[in-house]
Amino acid sequence: MRKKSLESPKPRDKCFVLMPFGGWFDRYYKEIYVPAIMDAGFEPVRADEVFKSGIVLEQIREEISKAKVCLAHLTNKNTNVPYEVGFAHGVGTPVILIAADINDVPSNLRGSRTILYNTNDPYWGAQLKENITAFLKNQLDLENSSRTVNYQPIDRNCFSPHLPLPLQQEMMRSKNGAQGIHAKARSVRRHFPV
User: Fold this and answer.
1) What are phi and psi of 152, to 5 degrees?
2) Of 50, 112, 162, 179, which one is least surrounded by beta carbons within 10 A?
3) What whole-number distance in Å separates Cα of residue 161 and Cα of residue 68?
């Protein structure tokens, strides 16, 4: 007779979904995204499922930071989603983009991993689900191999969380640039003393 293990199952890594809420986006999430994400071995989370008091934007940033991967639905050019994609890139969380039309993907993101779907195809929902699962499994494979592409995260502790993210990123670039210039100047002074 087998003894039951008292160990709880290993918690799944989170896949945070960046997308608008309401209408058909909610149906896509429940009927396509959730099953596809779970089939890939992740726990799906969307911002409207985070129930705690506080500032919503800070909670979204926290969830993106904790996620193993993000899915970003860019169809209809909702302005919040690219902002959240930028934050994910800044903290080093991989992002898989999804859109019905390549023109919904901002030009600076078109080189990223993107799943395109066509609602005119009668099987588009099933195909989108399969593609999401495949892309997420591929992301796991990348993370478990030496081929992983890592974004260089910004140091989140060096700025006030109240500064807008683009300003924080610009300050980080300036700080890194200034450090590089100072290091180069020190090196030159060592070799060519005045």
Assistant:
1) -90, 110
2) 162
3) 22
